[in-house]
Amino acid sequence: MLQKLLLDNLRELLHAERQLLKALPRASAAANYWQLKTAFEKHTQETQSHLDRLGEAFELLGVRLRATPCKPMRALIAAMLAAINQGTGEGPDLADLALVAAAQRIGHFAWADYSSARVMAEHAGHSELARLLAQNEEEEERATRTLTRIASPILQRAARPGAKAAGA
Fold this sequence. Notes:
Ferritin, 5 helices
């Protein structure tokens, strides 16, 4: 039963990461603040590494690489794309803040999902699989914390009366 739950989780994670890999370049292109653009570009590379590790995970379990639709990630990415579309008229700082908020929701979801999968793998006796999942989990945590750090100066600028320009 635990093995099936773990495998179902991994299949959803595979789909989620594939969706994210397609969406991150749009987020990077929409970002105004150079550090935010850079963070999205870095996370695009990390997401490809997540997919590579998930491929290894399926190999370790001896099962075919097959994704199951991840409806929560689909909804979170749709919200991020809506933030991109709505943010264009809000000024660069507010647009970037909306993008950061949407990206953080995605990051927290992925971070929690990897954490759950890692714990399941540990309890199922799959230590190598747990190690791979822990790497993805740590990268998701770091990416989420980076977004928080990047948002701070944007928030400071946005809070100033009449401030509209993105920072350099």
